[in-house]
Amino acid sequence: MPSHRLDNLAVTIEKDGASRFAKASYPIRFGKYSEISTPDYEFQFNLTGDIKFIRGLHAKWRHPSELLKRTDGNDWVFYSLGSVGQKIVTWLGEYYLPCLPYPSNSFWEHNPFTDPDIMTAFGAWSQLYANLCGMRRDGLPGEVKEFLDLVSQNDETALHEKAKRLRSIMGGRPSVLPPDTRHVDYEVIPLMVADGCLYHCDFCCVKSPQPFTPRTRDDIAGQLSRLKDFYGRNLINYKGLFLGNHDALAAGRDLLSMAAGQAIEALRMDAPEIFLFGSVDSLLRAEGELFDYLSRVSSFSYINIGLESVDAATLAAINKPLRVAKVKEAFQKMLELNRAYDNLAVTANFLLGEDLSPGHYQSLAELLGGVPDHLAGKGAVYLSPMMASRNRLALLDNFYEIKKASRLPAYVYLIQRL
Ligand code: SF4
Fold this sequence. Notes:
The protein has twelve helices and 17 strands. The protein is of the alpha/beta class and 418 residues long. Strands 1-2-3-4-5-6-7-8 form an eight-stranded antiparallel beta sheet, covered by helices on one side. Strands 9-12-13-14-15-16-17 form a seven-stranded parallel beta sheet. Strands 10-11 form a two-stranded antiparallel sheet. It binds iron/sulfur cluster.
């Protein structure tokens, strides 16, 4: 892909990145993107000219592999390699620690947005944007001109408006993405199939107030037609489909199959990775035909279930209206499904919290340690620090104890929104 020199800028249009998401401790760009490099920074753009990544190239940048990423919800997330001694890959299964610009449940207290070097990077982006807008286009090759025009249309206000438009298509902003979306770097196309959830537990900081309500078929078709228009050429850069919201599995086989099938057709997603949340009741109720369908149409499907605890006192304390026996039954079904399908994984969430009883940790260690050999290793469990915890770092000891006992891979659940 030829690079064009414009003063001190190197502009490369529509580079081919990796064809699959990969996990590495250095930046691997996925899909098709364009790039502008200055002597000090690298700026990358998607196919609709939106800024996506900023990386420092100068000596004062914290580390050449660290970078800033802009999400479709218009959040800037700093991808940090962490500090010496932090075992990020052990915590998250990923090499990067996403530092979020909004309150979340992370173990670490690191706000990169007060870091002068990062503020300087944002300043450099503003300056570059102003320079591009003022740059004479005479004599530039047609594709460079088109690209610069596209970037110039996407100032801060335009990007804010785009994120607003996406929220209006969905009918709100998903407050959390399934933890498994980390496998596609949280880059998913969201299609809402239902709102609300079944339990409205006390501890939960991501729930929506309404009762569980499936969307109508017309609503889903309307979202798809608007999503197609919204993503435009950039659709080819998405391999993940998120069927939202907090308990899409409860929408049932017919609606879910219809939504997934129509999305694949309308958005031309060839065997996407499909992600959704479920609950104990929706998992226990779900019929085999749904899993067969997901396994047939996706390259891989992930269903993430909030189990929280197998300790009766803890379930009562967090006001989760479930009996331990039922939670265990859902856990067994999860293991069976993980054994039955090669390209489908059910994963589960459990809580970490300083006020949770020793019985919670003991029963959880027993449950995860008792997974039979032939079921071990497939799927994963995510341990979610409660938002209300006063000292989340102290919960790392609990995390490591559970991880050590578990025969399933165990990671920290970081609440990330779209
Ligand atoms: S944990 Fe799940 S079921 Fe409970 S309130 Fe939150 S979203 Fe609803």
